[in-house]
Design a protein that fits this description.
Blueprint lengths: L17 H6 L20 H7 L4 H5 L2 H15 L4 E2 L6 H6 L3 E4 L3 E4 L6 H7 L10 H14 L4 E6 L1 H10 L7 H9 L1 H25 L3 E6 L7 H7 L1 H12 L5 E5 L6 H6 L4 E3 L6 H8 L5 E5 L8 H15 L5 E5 L9 H14 L5
Parallel strand pairs: 1-4, 4-5, 5-6, 6-7, 7-8, 8-9
Antiparallel strand pairs: 2-3
The protein binds coproporphyrinogen III.
Coproporphyrinogen III binds next to strand 3.
């Protein structure tokens, strides 16, 4: 692997872990499990630590980001940590005015709407030195994690561009899709810039010690397959290309992307993350016999009675057997109101169930 010799994938710390083996297409004895948004408001220890600190400030405080990253690993015994950060951090570090408004999400001070706006944005650069707080958070974290791999992540260009153009969360991303369809040249310039800075963010995490990377395309589900293929996937491929030479496994996840799974694979992912709407065995049939899958317990089940949760977990594990390898996860993030003991129970159940023969 083209990472420093002291990197956990190279010095033997994480290369044999269940997560990395599954991401490489093997079937470890136990199905690895982690949860998207496992760090965060479902944990009382997180709420205590974050009190009075704005979200993005907490991401840029290496000691705090590292501690928050480690909390769910200690509590649940998950098979991976995911760096506590946010997809908009590279925007902030490049100089874009962005805040996370609690209960709402990222809000952009001056939305990017015109060719002039995009040209001004494209002047902004993200130097690796600006990512030092992120790299430091990674280093502090892997020192504590030992053989548990840390996953680094970044937002996919479409999801970030949707925030930049809309100025905040939106339902149908109409303004972003209007630019995409009406002014493809401006759109392409926006996507190229976004791919570069989000890829740089992921690269800094991997070089500092993350053992895998995940690209989150939370809003790609608002695109048709044709528009995704023409106007979003090339930039996702460009973002993945920024880190491909490092040799760490790369996961591509989206929400509402049941129609896009093959295109997401073709953008250059090793592993495809599947949301709760698509059965894992159907996803795997479409992705082919060499692509590991990750997912996809419906987050809504986390509030259900224990017997219903158990049935859901077993169903996901059974369908996951159709794939060459499976990493258990939710279909999207942990809701803030989730009882953390429910998550611990799911980790125990997945580990108890083992990897039955195919
Ligand atoms: O998964 C993890 O535990 C790692 C950390 C992580 C966060 N955000 C922390 C966070 C990751 C991987 C993300 C990615 C992210 N951020 C995505 C893609 C994944 C997805 O969920 O679809 C998106 C779309 C964002 C943008 C964003 N940041 C939103 C929509 C929100 C929620 C706003 C709210 O208050 O509901 C955030 C804030 C955020 N990012 C929180 C956390 C733990 C909540 C902050 C808080 O405690 O108030």
């Amino acid at each position: 692997v083209a990472l420093p010799p002291e990197h956990p994938l190279n010095d033997g710390r994480t290369s044999g872990s269940a997560l990395i083996r599954a991401y490489r297409g093997e079937r470890p004895e136990v199905t690895p499990v982690w949860f998207m948004r496992q760090a965060g408001r479902s944990l009382p220890e997180y709420r205590r630590l974050r009190e009075g600190v704005p979200m993005l400030d907490s991401c840029l405080d290496p000691a705090m980001a590292s501690e928050i990253t480690l909390q769910p690993v200690r509590r649940h015994g998950v098979d991976a940590a995911i760096l506590f950060s946010d997809i908009v951090i590279p925007l902030r570090l490049a100089g874009v005015g962005v805040e996370i408004v609690p209960g709402r999400g990222p809000v952009i001070a001056r939305p990017v709407r015109t060719a002039e706006d995009v040209a001004a944005l494209a002047e902004l650069t993200l130097e690796p030195a600006a990512l030092e707080p992120i790299a430091e958070a990674v280093r502090l974290t892997i020192d504590e994690l030992g053989s548990t791999p840390l996953i680094g992540f970044a937002g996919a260009p479409f999801t970030l561009a949707a925030y930049l153009v809309e100025g905040g969360p939106s339902k149908d991303h109409l303004a972003a899709r209007s630019m995409m369809l009406g002014d493809p040249e401006t759109w392409e310039a926006l996507m190229a810039w976004t791919a570069r800075i989000t890829g740089t963010f992921l690269r800094a995490q991997l070089i500092a010690g993350a053992s895998a990377g995940q690209l989150f395309d939370s809003w790609a589900g608002s695109l048709s397959l044709d528009d995704y293929t023409t106007s979003a996937a090339p930039a996702s491929a460009a973002a993945l290309d920024v880190v491909r030479d490092l040799g760490a496994p790369l996961v591509h996840f989206g929400v509402g992307t049941g129609d896009l799974l093959e295109a997401m694979r073709d953008a250059g992912a090793d592993v495809v993350g599947v949301d709760w709407r698509t059965r894992l065995d159907d996803a795997s049939r479409r992705l082919g016999p060499t692509v590991p899958v990750q997912g996809n317990l419906d987050s809504a089940l986390l509030a259900a009675p224990a017997a219903v949760i158990e049935r859901g977990v077993r169903d996901v594990l059974r369908r996951g057997q159709a794939a060459p390898a499976h990493v258990f996860n939710l279909g999207h993030g942990v809701p803030p109101e989730t009882d953390p003991d429910v998550l611990t129970g799911i980790v125990e159940l997945v580990h108890r169930s083992g990897a039955e023969p195919r």
